[in-house]
Specification:
This protein is mainly alpha-helical. It has helices at 7-33, 37-49, 58-80, 82-85, 89-95, 102-119, 124-134, 141-155, 173-192, 200-226, 232-250, 253-266, 269-274, 276-284, 292-309, 314-319, 322-336, 342-359, 364-379, 387-404, 407-411, 416-420, 425-442, 449-458, 460-463, 476-490, 498-512, 520-540, 554-569, 574-590, 594-610, 615-631, 637-652, 657-667, 682-707, 714-728, 736-752, 763-778, 780-786. The longest helix is centred in the first third of the chain and has 27 residues, at 7-33.
Length: 791
């Protein structure tokens, strides 16, 4: 056995070997030039004797072998030319068998044998059989492997395959196959004999060396796969059984794994499909330590690609019952290999599912069967903690989404949610995001309450806190992205049948209400607008529609909305709740539901009074209230007066005078609505403007008292524009003299500001005056109205 030396020692021995080859090759070439057969054989034997070393690693030995190989090519050319050495090739074949040592003798025999076959003076099968038997004399693993590799190389183009020059009555394809199989068998035995022995570091080095040698053995299978004439029948009856027998019997982990891999890669896909029983049986007979999952995965990937290459081959998969066989084999492997990690089992299921989706995309029962087997395996594990296994489960769950481009199909798989239940919270969220992204990408519409129920069970990791999770620990940006995705999803839930749509809304609400205070501000608004869409739909159908369970009426929807927004207001998130109340009130107005609209406005005012304390938020809220109230025309006189009185009262009680002023003059629009049926109470609109003017004057006085000057006249200019608006709209209580007085007031304020005599320095005021002049110059009815105003 070779002892393991240092790199420097091996380099020295390699250098000595190369030097020996070069030295003897020099004299061999001199003899070749002199056509001296005796000397050629003498020095070729000495040169090839350098390959007898046992000191080199496979990699170093390969370097030495290649030096000798180059010389053997020259030697073969010499042997071909009988005129140079003067001996018939038969006699030469006999002569080289008398060389001294077995290794040089066999190399020479293979070289002359190549020439002998080419001469066709003997059947190639006889020469090949003789050569493969002669090589048995070299039993040193490394030397024997390289010798047989040389034999395979020089004989490759001389095999009696179909279409070759050596095919004939005495030579058949079976002879070529028999030769390669025999050489393969012997090479595998030699390879296996490089056993792992010694301490750990030595075993690791031996393992590495055996890996370096494996291609020498695998080349035989490549040759078998390339021989012309090896049809399916021959492969099924002879080639595969012989190769599999050798693989199973060698009882070597590395050899079994590599050679099974070679079989799958080398031979055609249709052969694999027709010999599936044999291949799968071999997989179950491999050593327990062999990574069978990779072998099976590669096999299924090959078959999947084959199925995807053409629809014409799919019937072959049905004929051989490929799915059932693969499924049973995987079950047996997982059952027998108790030490297989969970990630290995998940990898197998992913490959089987990929195969199923490509070959039998219409068989959802097959897909569900794979997911069911996955559930059984996951149930045997206390808790799935392996990150790689998690990744495989995500791949398993993603495959149906990618194949069908339709989440609705995945929702019909009963085992799909059961697989998701085994994911940890983080991975569950990742998978939920993938599901939502799939829906968005494919513009899928979920149209039944039952499917919505299943869907929201799948994405529950996003819509509520799972056991042991805390939303406070989540990254804010990630959390917002998750909730925005859920919000987008809600808009993809739709059904043209109002009864079913109402059921969908109820299902979604049931799930969203468990989301907690951080999620509700994201998820409630889309639910509200989805429900309002249903209200518009019911309104367009001109009448209530009675469903079997819950009557789909606007009033029923508004009851749900009121309860939903009430939860949001208690989060607390009063500003958002107020906006939603106002949206619903406007929708109730469109449906001519005055009591509902009034109640919703009442809730909005209660929120304003009790929950909104920030002055900036109060300003925003009062303008929203005023704007919404102005657009609503469903209220009777009493209800409208109550609400407008409240709005104007709140406006006048804002903290800052400028905010008070703007809110009060905005209230003027509540008394003058510019449409056919709108309210036109010019007197009360003018009262709002005069009140706003008083507040603006008080604001100027306060500014003068605190800062020493009255500041800009923006508020007065804004009020002036409101006067002009109502003046043009025909409010009889606003006269040209009112506008004239206000213009003069602004001019006086601007002149008195620190004695500044520059008029019209305010751009807004300048633009307003320009507009008045434009209207005066335009003429017509409007020009006549503006004519009394003197600027």
């Amino acid at each position: 056995m070779r002892t393991f030396a240092g790199v420097e020692d091996e380099d020295k021995w390699l250098a000595e070997g190369i030097a020996g080859i070069q030295h003897n090759a020099f004299f061999m070439h001199r003899a070749l030039d002199a056509n001296n057969l005796r000397e050629v054989l003498k020095y070729s034997v000495l040169m090839l004797s350098e390959l007898r070393t046992s000191k080199l690693s496979p990699q170093k030995y390969y370097d030495l072998y290649m030096r000798a190989f180059d010389q053997l090519r020259q030697l073969e050319i010499f042997f071909k030319d009988e005129s140079r050495h003067g001996l018939p090739v038969v006699d030469l074949y006999e002569l080289v068998q008398h060389a001294g040592n077995i290794l040089p003798r066999t190399y020479l025999l293979c070289t002359v044998g190549s020439v002998y076959i080419k001469s066709k003076q003997a059947p190639s099968k006889d020469v090949l059989k003789d050569l493969v038997e002669m090589c048995r004399g070299v039993q040193h693993p490394i030397r024997g492997l390289f010798l047989r590799s040389y034999l395979a190389q020089v004989s490759r183009d001389k095999l009696p395959e179909i279409g070759s020059d050596y095919e004939g009555d005495a030579n058949t394809v079976m002879d070529a196959v028999e030769f390669v199989l025999q050489n393969f068998t012997e090479m595998n035995k030699l390879w296996v004999r490089v056993q792992q022995q010694g301490p750990g570091t030595v075993r690791e080095k031996q393992e590495k060396e055996r890996n370096e040698l494996r291609d020498l053995v695998g080349k035989n299978l490549h040759v078998l796969g390339q021989i012309e004439g090896v049809d399916l029948e021959m492969y099924k009856e002879t080639v595969l059984p012989r190769v599999v027998e050798q693989i199973v019997n060698c009882k070597d982990e590395l050899a079994q794994y590599y050679l099974m891999e070679c079989i799958i890669q080398v031979f055609p896909d249709e052969y694999h499909l027709q010999t599936l029983d044999t291949l799968l049986a071999a997989c179950t007979q491999l050593m327990p330590t062999v990574d069978t999952k990779i072998v099976l995965t590669q096999l299924m990937d090959r078959l999947s690609n084959y199925a995807a290459s053409s629809s014409d081959v799919l019937h072959e998969f049905l004929q051989v019952e490929a799915f059932a066989k693969l499924s049973n084999a995987i079950g047996k492997v997982i059952e027998t290999q108790l030490e297989m990690p969970i990630v290995g089992a998940m990898t197998l299921f992913v490959s089987l599912l990929t195969f199923t989706l490509r070959v039998h995309p219409d068989r959802l029962d097959y897909v569900d069967q794979v997911l069911g087997a996955c559930v059984v395996k996951l149930s045997s594990v206390p808790k799935l903690e392996d990150a790689r296994a998690m990744k495989q489960v995500v791949a398993l769950l993603s495959a149906p989404l990618e194949k069908y481009n339709d989440i609705v199909t995945a929702l019909t798989l009963s085992n799909y949610p059961r697989v998701m239940d085994h994911l940890d919270d983080g991975t569950n969220k990742v998978m939920a995001m993938l599901i939502i992204q799939s829906i968005m990408k494919n513009d899928s519409c979920i149209s039944t309450a039952d499917k919505v129920e299943v869907l929201f069970e799948l994405i529950k990791g996003l819509i509520k806190d799972l056991d042991g999770t805390n939303t406070e620990e989540l990254d804010e940006e990630d959390f917002q992205e998750e909730q925005n995705s859920v919000a987008r999803l809600i808009h993809m839930l739709d059904n043209e049948e109002p009864e079913e749509m109402l059921k969908i809304i109820c299902v979604v609400r049931k799930h969203l209400m468990t989301g907690g205070p951080r999620r509700l501000p994201f998820t409630v608004p889309p639910l509200v607008f989805s429900a309002l869409r249903l209200v518009r739909q019911l309104e367009s159908q001109d009448g209530d529609i009675a469903g079997e369970d819950v009557p789909a009426t606007p009033r029923a929807v508004f009851q749900i909305l009121n309860q939903t927004i009430e939860v949001l207001s208690s989060v607390p998130c009063p500003e958002l709740a107020l906006r939603l109340y106002l949206q619903c009130a406007e929708a109730a107005s469109d449906c001519d539901l005055e009591p509902v609209a009034y109640e919703l406005f009442t809730q909005a005012f209660i929120l304003y009074e009790e929950e909104i304390a920030d002055s900036k938020e109060q300003v925003t809220a009062i303008h929203l209230i005023v704007g919404t109230l102005q657009r609503i025309n469903v209220f009777g006189v009493e209800n409208r007066d109550t609400l407008t009185h409240k709005a104007t009262g709140y406006s006048a009680r804002l903290l800052k005078k400028p905010d008070q002023c703007r809110a009060v003059y905005a209230c003027s629009h509540l008394f003058w609505v510019d449409d056919l049926d709108g309210i036109k109470d010019g007197e009360r609109a003018l009262l709002c403007l005069r009140r706003a003017l008083r507040i603006a004057n008080a604001a100027q006085q306060m500014a003068n008292a605190t800062r020493g000057n009255s500041g800009p006249v923006t508020l007065f200019v804004e009020i002036l524009n409101k006067y002009i608006y109502f003046f043009e709209k025909g409010n009889p209580h606003i006269t040209p003299s009112d506008i004239q007085s206000l213009v003069e007031l602004i001019n006086n304020e601007m002149q008195s500001d620190n004695g500044n005599t520059t008029i019209h320095s305010d751009p807004f005021f300048t633009s307003t005056l320009r507009y008045i002049r434009f209207q005066k110059q335009k003429g017509g009815l409007m020009g006549e109205k503006y004519d009394p105003i003197k600027l």
